[in-house]
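Design review, sub-item: ligand-bound model
Attendees: FS, YL, KQ
YL presented the inputs for the s-citryldethia Coenzyme A complex:
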Amino acid sequence: MKLQEHKATLSFSNGAPSVELPIYSGTVGPDVIDIRKLYAQTGMFTYDPGFLSTASCQSSITYIDGDKGELLYRGYPIEQLATQCDYLETCYLLLYGELPNAAQKANFTERVTKHTMVHEQMQFFLRGFRRDAHPMAVLTGLVGAMSAFYHDSTDINNPEHREIAAIRLIAKMPTLVAMAYKYGIGQPYIYPRNDLSYAGNFLRMMFATPCEEYHVNPVLERAMDRIFTLHADHEQNASTSTVRLCGSSGTNPFAAIAAGVACLWGPAHGGANEACLNMLEEIQAMGGVAKIGEFIAKVKDKSSGVRLMGFGHRVYKNYDPRAKLMQETCNEVLSELGLENDPLFALAKKLEQIALEDDYFVQRKLYPNVDFYSGIVQRAIGIPVSLFTGIFALARTVGWIAQLNEMLADPEYKIGRPRQLYIGAARRDVLPIAQR
Ligand code: SDX
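KQ shared the predicted structure:
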């Protein structure tokens, strides 16, 4: 980062001495004001709950321009990666900073492929859950449980450990997500196959049974791979910030990633795709397109507490580029499966069109985000709604690891420990219970 000539001067109306704060510029995007010395110099904290104006770190991994609706992974536009590369190439890019050449891609693919099996004992963790447990509850448990197995890769200060833990997590997430699914429907687990692609392997572990050969549909395989790429990383979102904060204590990578899975589950974050599909099904049950106006009116009435799920974003104040690509993938999958007239897809497109013409959404710059169409395409592929966020977690694991490893590789990193504005009771003495 580059120190700017001009600085920020903080002056106080009560006559306290002004403070000069350095300003830094990155490659692109907003400059930052360095406030690290502010408390020492002024005895005051900054105040920014929700981190609306706070940069928590410097990073070279992902850049988002919310106004332009631009998303770059290591400088490459998501539109190019999602159409010209596959997910494992994107994983390599996010982890190591450059796209792999053919030899590097083959080696990386082989390393991931050879780690797709999980320890046989993992099955016994699943048995502890009710069959109807939410897959995200199961996945949070399974990912955390990985730290009970892979002791030879939990020293985060050892770059080799960080490397093998990254490969293990990327390789085993599809297996664990598929196991959580099979456990829920009472079917036997399907072991990974080394002759299938990453996405093809996942589809087979999800939908194959021991009773017959499973043939991977190449259109669905490509769609699944693209869904993984579109969800791979997204700057300092809530779950990534959780992984960084958790990892900053020096805990092992599996525990830090499990914290990210837990955070992603929330409906305001990764759980929005499940919430969005449930919302579409609710409108469909109310009467479909004819009821969109009534639903939109509810959304605009704050007291209803109803939100248009899959719309709006903290950073994007324009179309989320991933939503456009997800809509295209939706079209491809639905036409491949002869579901062009899927009522929910028609409903979603109508809902988007109406919302984008409505001043309430236009004024607030609320556009479809990655979650608006992802549920429809996953449902068409046959993935149950309750597993949507699990697939988001599967895909985002590489982003979480890349961000965690970037932090751990920075010799200056410290344990994250925010402060607060205390508004509780001033010091007071305990009274004996008879006097309370
Ligand atoms: C993801 O951070 C990331 O990068 C996340 C993510 C990633 O890849 O990691 O992109 C993935 O989480 C996408 C977002 C998925 N969430 C949803 O789709 C849930 C619905 N959307 C929201 O609840 C909301 O838009 C957030 C949480 C996404 C963003 O919330 P902000 O930035 O805190 O904005 P806000 O809640 O303050 O809303 C601003 C205004 C408010 O109205 P006013 O108070 O100004 O009158 O817009 C309104 C909100 O009421 N609003 C919505 C709305 N989203 C915001 N109104 C109706 N429907 C919505 N979806």
